[in-house]
Model the fold of this input.
Amino acid sequence: MMIKHNLIGSLVLPVALMGLTQVQAAVPRKVPVALGDILVLPKEPRQEILKGIGPKVFPKLVTKIFDEQATVSQRWSAMNSLVELSPGPATEQVIETCLKNKNWALRNAGLFAMVQLNKTKAEHWALQLLTDRSLIVRTAAVETLRNVKAVNRNRDRLWKELENPLNYRLGKSLWIRKTLLKA
Done:
């Protein structure tokens, strides 16, 4: 997938790809840039480039989020960029789709993204994902409840999850139990 961006000068993109952010603007011209290349940039230059492309990049970010061939890092970056550039009901729907996805990394990233978009929905999803099959997602669910300041009103549920058989392996306590106790 290629994106034509007319705000990037001939020298800006190569320098940005190297991680440098202070550059003199060159004569603007159209430069074909792969979205995957933009998504590996540090946050500030990535967001600046994506803002310059405008709303037409949003569907491409959504496609990248669900692209099983993309790296986890690219998918995470696409999700964070979408949340930052286009917060609102449409993005919430995309994130909710991630939270239902079979891929644990999307469910995990979805929890963090929903905290930024809608704390009430983040709490709802965190409670649902406390029993997720992925230990990482269950841990993120506890962290989400802490981040949205919903631990006290869900204390009984957290105590219940402390004894959930999913939180043991071969009779040994998994790290999530410690996370639950600290919440």
